Amino acid sequence: MVIKTFKVGLKYLLRRPYTRLVPDREGPLTSDRTRGRHVLDMSKCTGCSMCQKVCPADAIQMVKVEGPWPQNVKKIFPRIDYQRCTFCGMCVEACPFNALSMTNISGWYLITRDKKSTLYNPEKLSKVFETKEYRITMVKSLAEVQRLKKEGESNA
Amino acid sequence: MSTEEDLLTMLRDRLPKDKVREVNITKWLNKFEIITDPENIRYVILALKGLGFNHLVAIETIDWLKKEPTFELIYYLASIERNGAMVLVRTKIPRDNPVIDSIHDILPFAYYQELENYEFFGITFRGHKGLKLWILEDNWDGPPPLRKDFDSVKYALEHYYKGLRYERGDSNE
Amino acid sequence: MKEVIVMNEEIELFFGPQHPGAPGNVGFKLKLKGERVLDVELIPGFLHRGFEKMMENRWWEVNVVLSSRYCVEDPDNMELGYVLAVDDLYGVEVPEKANHVRTVVAEMSRIQSHLFWIMFMGAGLGARYIPSWAMAAREEILKWYDYLTGHRIYHHYMVPGGIRWNVPQDFNERTLHTLNTVSKIVRDIEEAFITNKIVRERTEGVGVVKGSIAVELGVSGPTLRAAGIPYDIRKADPYASYGKVSFEVPVGSRGDSYDRIKIRVKEIYESIKIIEQLLPKINYEDKAYRLQLPTIPPNGEGLGRVEAARGEHLVHVVNLRSRYPYRVRIRPPSMPLLTTVLKYIVSNEEVTIADFPVIVKSLDPCAPDIDR
Ligand code: SF4
Ligand code: SF4
């Protein structure tokens, strides 16, 4: 009986190790559907506060951002506190104007020594952000997408 | 669904009229519902145990403060011989004097369920020897927390945060 | 003449949450006489988060996010319990596709939970190789969850009225692939661990709960089935798609720790069988996977009863015409395991302090759900 254990154990001894390093990038731990860092489209957000109301972790606060926002009279936008966010995706689902969306970039930006760095202002949520593997840019139209794609191709 | 009706008639026959107010099938998920008075709770549970409903699943309290000043207790009893049929025994006790007989000597698991209801709703179970704070032991001195008139936010701010609110990263707001 | 000193005094020992033999975030107060455990008292509350109160302050659909969080090991069955209760409150029949996918997800959760438990059991018995194998198998399932739901541990994939997203086109192949990998590892574990002589000697005849007394102790799930009672809510009161598949309910005969080990491994195979039966039934063309429900449910009550990996999980919701639940009662499956069952075992047989962790682990309690 115990011999069997040794036999199977030996099989596993010869295998590759299964463990991985926790990456400082969005490596093997994500899939297409992984719920990660939010992106805010400030040209769509109307400041309706739905996302704030739905958030189960109370991670969203509405803050004022000055600027020309014709659709957003009160000029308030969500600010996400990633110390609290659970990445449930409720805010994305609740947003009636599809202003908030999620990327599948997850994890690395939560590793920090400074609590303040996990507080994402609306500007920071909507800006271009770059990781080792991706570069996320918010665009307004499909034409712009095509333009950026072309640029990327010509650069490469 | 004849077995269900059979069970219903059986329950109606076997439980005496003066001890039990109503025996119904609930609107939800076809469970049996027995409404009784708090004085008869031990009798009803014993009778049901004799009928094979000897698996206590849970005891629940609902604080009906918004409708009427009562606590409603629900005993969930299942019968394994009868293929998992479930009976809900419901009874109401007044909110200002929440006392009911304990059933922990009939079904041993009730001991812990009653303990839970005691600490979260302040219901006293007569005959229960070990009523004390159990889950909340050593870090609670407020009123029973699941009652509807208990303001958890206020209590937490006063007792745990010394009146301060949670500060988000930038405190210059 | 040699003098033998026998300690005849009863001592109390705190068997705490940090002890490597403890099953999670709970403590025990043991009354010992020499080596023998005379009495055990559970000390919960190290992880009390007040879920029932918290749920009263959040919207119906948002509570799904909370509902998985009181048991890390078996989150989807917990979600399913809540979601069934809310569906019942709305009085809706969810689309067939959603039912199938819900069942698949819940069964995966059961497999994952049993694997997690194999890890604990292996570590508790000193078989250090088992935990890494079981965790490797569980990792495959977590990857599958990430692929389907977007999260690894807490998935929030079920919503009142269906499932949150449609299943991807390659769902079938991907699931079968995952199951294949998992079942290979489980077979190896069975060969190396379950039939192992040392494991048998440590667990056979230890911690016996047998026969009808188990019913009165309030216990359900694998522990009740090991006691010889073929009770499974999936069969007795079928929810989701369990009425449409055929599977066996493994039953033990002796009710000891070893029976519980065997039954859980058998249940993994049964779960794989259920998923394999359901996969061809999922219609990929079907667009109906989620009902749009009004935000305020009708007045009334709803009940969800689920056979979770550890036993019966019951959720009762009450609504007084509001966006917030009036009351949510959660009866998690682990509470009888560590209270009545342990007390019964300790009072019935001679349990030594060395056997105690093995018995506790073989019951597979999920300590956080006692506190909630
Ligand atoms: S993902 Fe969930 S927790 Fe995070 S901000 Fe959105 S709603 Fe809040
Ligand atoms: S992100 Fe969406 S939900 Fe949130 S305030 Fe803007 S429009 Fe409303």
Automatic annotation (TrEMBL), chain A:
Pfam families per UniProt: Fer4_9
Keyword Lipid metabolism in annotation: no
Keyword Metal-binding: yes
Keywords: 4Fe-4S, Iron, Iron-sulfur, Metal-binding, Repeat
Xref: InterPro entries: 4Fe4S_Fe-S-bd (IPR017896), 4Fe4S_Fe_S_CS (IPR017900), NADH_quinone_OxRdtase_chainI (IPR010226), RLI1 (IPR013283)
GO cellular component: membrane
GO biological process, alphabetically ordered: aerobic respiration
4Fe-4S ferredoxin-type domain mapped to chain residues: 36-65, 76-105
MF annotations from Gene Ontology: 4 iron, 4 sulfur cluster binding; metal ion binding; NADH dehydrogenase activity
Protein name from the UniProt record: 4Fe-4S ferredoxin-type domain-containing protein
Automatic annotation (TrEMBL), chain B:
Molecular function terms, GO-annotated: NADH dehydrogenase (ubiquinone) activity
InterPro entries: NADH_quin_OxRdtase_su_C/D-like (IPR037232), NADH_UbQ_OxRdtase_30kDa_su (IPR001268)
Pfam family, any one: Complex1_30kDa
Domain of life: Archaea
Gene3D superfamilies (UniProt xref): NADH:ubiquinone oxidoreductase, 30kDa subunit (3.30.460.80)
Protein name, as recorded: NADH:ubiquinone oxidoreductase 30kDa subunit domain-containing protein
NADH:ubiquinone oxidoreductase 30kDa subunit domain ranges (all copies): 36-154
SUPFAM superfamilies xrefs: Nqo5-like
Recorded family membership: Belongs to the complex I 30 kDa subunit family.
